[in-house]
């Protein structure tokens, strides 16, 4: 029964993916520069904000030169890339601080929110999916499935407002926003975890339907397969059949889903952070995009790309582990 | 083993989730609003920077910093870091400030004339990315005489210059050591002001604590927090749950607190106008008869009552009707019959589909508003519907500034602005013909030699009566040839917990960030009763 993990093939897969990530990152960052360049937004106007509405043209032209946005696209991208490779991510014009600082002070909270929500979505989603698959067409299945479809259609922003209305205003049991109590300065684990509940739950709920539906389908199919019928024929307990046999093979498609949901999770997190005044990277991302803040935008896009690639890698590794027939060739 | 490792991971995650959930249940929201000497307010806006060198707090009330001068509740100038109001010399081209002695920055280092010179010279430096530096256009040089005197030399006599010196002063020994555009000072400021920044959690809140050694006396409100809540409904909800002590709210949400015995609503008077630009380059909007007809033919009262729910006033020019600078008698009476008569007399005859025509030109023009701005949208639609009754077709369209800007010479725009400190600040840039099309200045390309002359006189003359007469001329000329249709001046509404007693508000500008609201002088508030 004991068998060590196939470290060699796994390492090779990771290596191949890492090598593959280089051209992807180059293409993505260049694409971001190009799209931002083509967008109708003007970095100088965005930088100046309302002050720009009374600034003289000379002032605005000087800003354009200072921000370096008057240079051609390719040279701007190349300058950014070479500096980034030397560890200098540049300065964010919108946030008036180095990009590394801007990301550093925000990313942790975003990761905490997204991870909690994701784990919650996977756990609850799998549980509901298994319960629904057990009696296809039963009342539980019908409730869970229709709820999942409804939630799939509900925008996270709206869910957030609804949750605040119910839990913060109506029941008064949970805080409506922020990382800690608004009047407190210290960041304590107790406060953060209490403030995390609503945003994480809303984000988890918005991701939940996919897991529920995938698991229900997977486990439902597995229940009709030969091994399960065999297990039942041997008179094993229903519980053992469901969890040990059907669930394990039914989970396989879910592993793929884990990888492909990461981009959706990032988008969802952006909306949820805005609703709950969560001091994560969301506001900065939106600002970077609409302000055409090239250095910040490129760094954030690279980061999101890495997150997606890692998500896919993780999914493939898990898939290979769970189903040795697939292997680590991808 | 694989299966077990997956299961273990799952168990760890489940436990973590449970811990989170349990801690959520164990301590329901206990500490609401904080203690009597603290205040928490909700604002919709977050500054990009806290560095005065990049434009933070340029209109005063920056909490962390002081200017040479400051405004009192009636917007009168009074000394702050200066010991008294400046001496004006050389025909209005030199301003001499004597500085307050013994003032220290919150890091304990003394404040001197060098800091003042550093602040102004850095802002005016070409390498500094400060978008408001145009406001200091008049400054030729700044000179320190000893430690306690600063002299500003101006390029031309500029009467309202003292109003600009409410600009906060940054410490040279801190800010001078860093990159002005991205140094740590932009997020971790040090000043002489009544409060020190404890923490700026971006996107969440700004936390201040009282500066115990403040030269003006330590504030009684020891802890002051500004929570950044961009969504209006959510801000109202957090105010209702007691999480916030006060908040800025739009009229419809402020109205929901009317029956709340613990809350008081403050309506701050403002110079914040909404206006339709009527560009000279447009054959219809640039026609004087059309401009005058629209000026008397739009129903401003209904806009105030329905769009602003009464929280505002009819606007007839950049100066609000209750300001001492307002020229009595320039109010326009809403009169559709007269508006139609003006158009008839000028040869704009009714044509196809109720739209008037003259010399083959249809009386129609596009009107742009900033997409997503509900208030401007409502104003634009109301304007178009009033214009339609006169036989003028106004086609309302929305776009971002990037879309609107190139169209400004020909198309009308629903714009906003207003600066209470001095009439020069918005009128010169709004109406001066030489600034037509310069950035967002004089968006309508308004060109009236009489107005140009009066604006120039008003900014150069140090004599109040002469300035008043010049601004009267401007306002009367705007009746004869209204290149803009001013619609409303908007009140800004704030709802605050009653336990802080009676608070005041200043007259507020269009651009009202964290300096405005009843907390403009939070350093003078009394603890909660």
From TrEMBL, chain A:
Compartments it resides in: Cell membrane
Keywords recorded for this protein, A-Z: Cell membrane, Membrane, Transmembrane, Transmembrane helix, Transport
Domain ABC transmembrane type-1: 107-315
Entry coiled-coil feature ranges: none
Transmembrane segments: 107-133, 154-176, 196-215, 294-315
Keyword Transport appears in the UniProt entry: yes
Principal location listed in the UniProt entry: membrane
GO CC term, one of those recorded: plasma membrane
Membrane topology label: Multi-pass membrane protein
Any one Gene Ontology BP term: transmembrane transport
Family: Belongs to the binding-protein-dependent transport system permease family.
Record protein name field: ABC transporter permease
TrEMBL record, chain B:
Any single GO CC term annotated in Swiss-Prot or TrEMBL for this entry: periplasmic space
Full protein name: ABC transporter substrate-binding protein
Membership in a protein family: Belongs to the bacterial solute-binding protein 5 family.
Membrane topology, from the record: Lipid-anchor
Keyword field contains Zinc: no
GO molecular function, one term: peptide transmembrane transporter activity
Pfam hit, one: SBP_bac_5
Matches recorded under CDD domains: PBP2_NikA_DppA_OppA_like_19
Domain annotation Solute-binding protein family: ranges: 76-433
GO biological process, one term: peptide transport
Key words, A-Z: Signal, Transport
Segment forming the signal sequence: 1-26
PANTHER family membership: OLIGOPEPTIDE-BINDING PROTEIN APPA (PTHR30290:SF9), PERIPLASMIC BINDING COMPONENT OF ABC TRANSPORTER (PTHR30290)
InterPro entries to which the protein is assigned, alphabetical: Peptide/Ni-bd (IPR030678), SBP_5 (IPR039424), SBP_5_CS (IPR023765), SBP_5_dom (IPR000914)
Localization: Cell membrane
């Amino acid at each position: 029964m004991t068998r060590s993990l196939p470290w060699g093939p796994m390492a090779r897969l990771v290596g191949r993916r890492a090598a593959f990530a280089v051209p992807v990152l180059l293409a993505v960052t260049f694409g971001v520069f190009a799209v931002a360049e083509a967008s109708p937004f003007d970095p100088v106007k965005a930088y100046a904000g309302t002050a720009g509405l009374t600034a003289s043209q000379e002032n605005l032209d000087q800003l354009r030169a200072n921000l370096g946005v008057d240079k051609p696209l390719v040279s701007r991208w190349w300058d950014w890339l070479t500096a980034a490779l030397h560890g200098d991510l540049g300065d964010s014009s919108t946030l008036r601080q180095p990009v590394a600082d801007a990301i550093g002070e925000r990313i942790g909270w975003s990761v905490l929110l997204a991870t909690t929500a994701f784990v919650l979505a996977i756990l609850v989603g799998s549980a509901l999916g298994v319960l629904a698959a057990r009696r296809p067409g039963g009342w539980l299945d019908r409730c869970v499935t229709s709820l999942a479809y409804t939630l799939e259609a509900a925008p996270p922003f709206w869910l957030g407002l609804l949750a605040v209305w119910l839990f913060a205003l109506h029941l008064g049991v949970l805080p409506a926003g922020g990382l800690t109590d608004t009047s407190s300065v210290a960041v304590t684990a107790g406060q953060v975890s209490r403030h995390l509940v609503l945003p994480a739950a809303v984000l988890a709920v918005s991701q939940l339907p996919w897991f529920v539906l995938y698991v229900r389908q997977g486990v439902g199919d597995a229940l009709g397969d030969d091994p399960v019928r065999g297990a039942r024929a041997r008179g094993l307990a229903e519980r053992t059949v469901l969890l040990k046999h059907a669930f394990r093979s039914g989970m396989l498609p879910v592993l793929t889903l884990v990888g492909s949901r990461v981009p959706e999770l990032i988008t969802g997190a952006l909306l949820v952070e805005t609703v709950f005044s969560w001091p994560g990277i969301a506001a900065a991302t939106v600002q970077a995009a609409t302000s055409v803040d090239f250095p910040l935008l490129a760094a954030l896009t690279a980061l999101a790309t890495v997150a997606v690639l890692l998500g896919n890698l993780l999914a493939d590794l898990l898939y290979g582990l769970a189903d040795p027939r697939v292997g680590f060739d991808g | 083993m694989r299966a077990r490792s997956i299961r273990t991971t799952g168990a760890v995650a489940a436990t973590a989730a449970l811990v989170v959930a349990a801690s959520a249940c164990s301590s329901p929201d206990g500490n609401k609003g904080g203690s009597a000497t603290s205040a928490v307010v909700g604002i919709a806006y977050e500054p990009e920077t806290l560095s005065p060198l990049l434009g933070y707090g340029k209109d005063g009330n920056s909490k962390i910093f002081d200017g040479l001068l400051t405004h009192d509740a009636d917007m009168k100038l009074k000394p702050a870091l200066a010991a008294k109001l400046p001496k004006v010399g050389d025909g209005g081209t030199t301003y001499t400030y004597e500085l307050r002695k013994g003032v220290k920055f919150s890091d304990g280092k003394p404040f001197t004339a060098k800091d003042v010179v550093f602040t102004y010279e850095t802002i005016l430096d070409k390498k500094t990315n400060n978008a408001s530096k145009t406001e200091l256009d008049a400054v030729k040089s700044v000179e320190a005489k000893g430690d306690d005197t600063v002299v500003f030399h101006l390029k031309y006599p500029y009467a309202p210059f003292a109003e600009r010196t409410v600009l906060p002063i940054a410490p040279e020994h801190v800010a001078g050591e860093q990159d002005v555009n991205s140094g740590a000072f932009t997020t971790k400021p040090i000043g002489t002001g009544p409060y020190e920044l404890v923490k700026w959690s971006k996107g969440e809140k700004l936390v201040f604590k009282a500066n115990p050694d403040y030269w003006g006396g330590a504030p009684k409100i020891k802890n002051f927090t500004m929570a950044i809540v961009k969504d209006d409904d959510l801000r109202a909800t957090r105010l209702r749950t007691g999480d916030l002590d006060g908040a800025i709210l739009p009229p419809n949400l402020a109205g929901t607190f009317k029956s709340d015995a613990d809350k008081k609503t403050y309506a701050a008077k403002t110079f914040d106008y909404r206006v339709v630009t009527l560009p000279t380059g447009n054959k219809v909007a640039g026609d004087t008869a059309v401009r005058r007809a629209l000026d008397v033919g739009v129903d401003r009262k209904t806009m105030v009552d329905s769009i602003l729910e009464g929280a505002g006033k009819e606007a007839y020019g950049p100066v609000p009707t209750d300001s001492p600078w307002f020229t009595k008698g320039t109010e326009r009476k809403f009169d559709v019959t007269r508006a139609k008569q003006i158009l008839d007399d000028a040869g704009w005859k009714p044509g196809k589909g109720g739209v008037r025509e003259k010399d083959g030109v249809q009386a129609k023009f596009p009107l742009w508003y900033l997409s997503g701005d509900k208030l401007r949208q409502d104003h634009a639609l109301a304007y178009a519907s009033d214009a339609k009754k006169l036989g003028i077709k106004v086609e309302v369209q929305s776009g971002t500034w990037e879309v609107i800007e190139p169209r400004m010479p020909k198309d009308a725009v629903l714009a906003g602005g207003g600066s209470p400190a001095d009439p020069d600040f918005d009128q010169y840039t709004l109406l001066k013909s030489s600034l037509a099309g310069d950035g967002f200045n004089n968006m309508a390309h308004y060109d009236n030699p009489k107005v140009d002359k009066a604006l120039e006189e008003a900014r150069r003359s140090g004599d109040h009566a002469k300035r008043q007469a010049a601004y009267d001329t401007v306002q009367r000329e705007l009746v004869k040839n209204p290149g803009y249709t001013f619609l409303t001046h908007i009140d800004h509404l704030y709802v605050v917990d009653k336990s802080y007693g009676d608070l005041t508000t200043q007259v507020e500008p269009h651009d009202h960030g964290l300096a405005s609201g009843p907390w403009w002088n939070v350093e003078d508030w009394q603890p909660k009763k």
